[in-house]
Amino acid sequence: MIAVSDNKPVTMHRFADCTDGCPDGGGHCDADGSPNMARVCINTTPSPIISLENQKPAYCDGIGSDSALTTHRNRRKQIPEKPNMSLNLWNFMKNAIGKELSKIPMPVNFNEPLSMLQRIMEEMEYSEILDQAARCTDSTEQMAWVAAFTVSSYATTVYRVGKPFNPLLGETYEFDRMEDLGWRGISEQVSHHPPMLATHVDGREWTTWQEFTMTTKFRGKYLQIIPMGIAHLVFHKSGNHYTWRKVTTTVNNIIMGKLWMDNHGEMDIANYTTGDKCHLKYYPHSYFSNDNPRKVSGVVKNSQGNAKWVLNGSWDQKMEAAPVIHDSGKGKSGYETGSHKCLWNVRPLPPGAEKIYFFSQLAIEMNEPEPGVAPTDSRNRPDQRLMEEGNWDEANRVKVRLEEKQREVRKRWEAEAEKAKLEGRECPQYEPTWFKKEEDITTGAPIYTYNKQYWKCKACQDWSMCPDIFL
């Protein structure tokens, strides 16, 4: 593994033997294939079991359970309120028209105190939908639940106009909620040009992973964010393997007025195991339409192309599904359906959310300091922490220093690459710490996938392979 250090050239590391330093001999540390197999080798004292307050089950048809909202530690319920420090967005953005926004340094005044690694992990907020999907014996019904999950990942964007922090190269984020929510995940910034992250989440009955990058189009009045990359989901029992791509997000009123978000476009979800497909349409906002705002509709079809489920709802509120009883062949207007059932219903935001960036309870918990995480974890990023604490001026100064440090590291990489070229030798390429490039089994294209090392190394608290990226 190649690690980039601030004051050293490229250095080679190997993963330490996990039996070293484990207080109980470490015999369990070589088991990482299952989310239930790895044990933490550090001493911890469990907190009493409590229930999150003011939370509503994700299901509105009685299928869900409040047990999904039980936590085994006292997690914070609040973060410092957002300071009243306005900055004219247009004065800053007018020189960025037509440019790739991800490459333009921006002050923290336009941010929220979470990194993009954390925002991607936040898509798991309604993971209990996947737990329900795992229980389905009919693959087309399972597809309907999967579709509802993909829609639920946009629920937090309705009010969240703050920009997440761009992760530094090698920055990571882990979120271990196996005890209370039934899943844990690890994300890493695997590339800087283009900016790209990879994430992997293990649930008890499912696994999901994705490689995420995006392009942006800034046209003055609005900013379009076009995601790239494919999300994968596999259910352990059935082996059903699903893929989908995200839709476009538009931030409106850049010049004047209140910023607001819209998600729109077409999404195709495929089950590569059975051949089932689902087509979802996210309707764009229109002042001339009588449709409900933020509307989403779709149809689930089996491998023979027969419609089995009709989906309707909105990406900020709920999704419902109805089984197709008869298909006249005239499209959606020709579907005779049974009774609808609610697959997902949004949970209300905590009281006073408008003062804390419109964070959900899960978002409030995501940047809470936690011992034992990797030194590269977003929780340890100093400018982001300063911003969360309300010290925006110092956060901006530290942000500049972090970006300068990253540029210096990149210059050393480029200088070494040029030297290697002149000497006729191959220059080592940057490699992520926790992800490796493999062939995507569904497309044949290269994709970053989890190398199954993070939780082993956390168990033994061996972070010797981590790059030095913060101050």
UniProtKB/TrEMBL annotation:
Its main location: membrane. One of its GO terms (biological process) is lipid transport. GO terms for molecular function: sterol binding. It comes from the Eukaryota. One of its GO terms (cellular component) is plasma membrane. InterPro entries: OSBP_sf, Oxysterol-bd. The keyword ATP-binding does not apply. Keywords: Lipid transport, Lipid-binding, Membrane, Phosphoprotein, Transport. It holds the Pfam family Oxysterol_BP. It is a peripheral membrane protein. It is found in: Membrane. Belongs to the OSBP family. This is Oxysterol-binding protein. It comes from Candidula unifasciata.
